[in-house]
Amino acid sequence: MISITEWQKIGVGITGFGAFFILLGALLYFDSVLLAFGNLLFLTGLTLIIGLRKTLSFFFQWHKLKGTSFFLGGVAVVLLRWPLLGMFLETYGFFSLFR
């Protein structure tokens, strides 16, 4: 049986809140504040679940660099209050990362 640390449990909760805020921001006509908050929570939770080293090694692999740049670029665009364009960039980057 795999043991789950307290940090990983907190990370699951934070990732869930991040997904909730992203969904709520999309439902409320792409509210940039909710989307930005959801993005930050999602990335923070992911880092707590799998660890900083594994997160960095996942995002910055050579063959995943295109997806990473689109995903993180989309996060930056959402933070700059262009939510629709940022979400399109994030979605493309997400599918490029996990294909």
From TrEMBL:
Topology class, membrane: Multi-pass membrane protein
PANTHER family given in the database record: CGI-141-RELATED/LIPASE CONTAINING PROTEIN (PTHR21493), VESICLE TRANSPORT PROTEIN GOT1A (PTHR21493:SF245)
InterPro entries (UniProt xref): Got1, Vesicle_transpt_Got1/SFT2
Transmembrane portions of the chain: 12-30, 36-56, 68-89
GO biological process, one term: retrograde transport, endosome to Golgi
Annotated compartments: Golgi apparatus membrane
Role noted for this protein: May be involved in fusion of ER-derived transport vesicles with the Golgi complex.
Superkingdom, taxonomy of origin: Eukaryota
GO cellular component: cytosol; endoplasmic reticulum; Golgi membrane
Name of this chain's protein: Golgi transport 1A
Similarity comment: Belongs to the GOT1 family.
The entry's keywords: Golgi apparatus, Membrane, Transmembrane, Transmembrane helix
One Pfam family linked to the record: Got1
